[in-house]
Amino acid sequence: MSAGPATMLRDDAALRVFDTGQGRLPIIFQHGLGGDAIQVAQNFPDGPSYRRLTVECRAQGGSGAGTTRPFSIAMFADDVLAAADAAGIDRFVAGGISMGAAIALRLAARHPDRILGLVLVRPAWAFDAAPQNMLPYAEVAELIRSRQLDEGRDIFAASATAARFRTEAPDNLASLLGFFARDNAAVFAEVMQSIANDGPGVTRAEAAGFKTPTLVIGTGIDLVHPLATARSLADAIPNAAFAEVTPKATDKERHFAEIRAAIGSFLEDRFNNQDQS
Q: DSSP letters of 210-250?
């Protein structure tokens, strides 16, 4: 296993799969909406104790979009499970950032026999589809699909949404403006619109039945990933650990370092690097 990606074909979508490390604890850790394996590497404490699998979701990172529609969290979760099967990984810790956390949540609810633990970093969804905090993604997607990219970016930059984010969550605003500059902006706008209107499809009652060790990580100065959403998930999942880290808008390096430390401590404490096969 190496850091270099393999390619997995799902329908007609060629997906990049990173199978990293040779440790005995298998972890599937997914990126956020518009992210990639580089984002995962910033947030996850890769080390000799872990085997970490990451799938770059359709139309994100180096993965193709394919022709199957609509895009959904369920689709991405199925792709992830197929990658686990192909890699011979039966049981694993499921985790991720934002959309990746929603994918992990869905896997825990739909495939509890395969999940050893959960790591939910900066979750954007709890139990409702199309939460208010995801509306800016739908707004950006609509502008990309209906306007020339430069024009759409200027319209969004002058919008009331952008004005609020500029004051309250500048890091979120930078991400949203960056979507207009993507090479695959048109197809990624389809992804954004679909995912912003979707959800993990997990109820509060289902989360209350989770029996696996869980870590939820939240942060402030973030309108897309409200601290209240992270706390809501931590409160709903029995005995979940909760960690609040330095906002990315305040200090990016410290933000990533604290996330890696929190995940590393959780995995060490709860799994003690035992063979989970």
A: --S-EEEEEESS-SSS-HHHHHHHHHHSTT-EEEEE--TTT
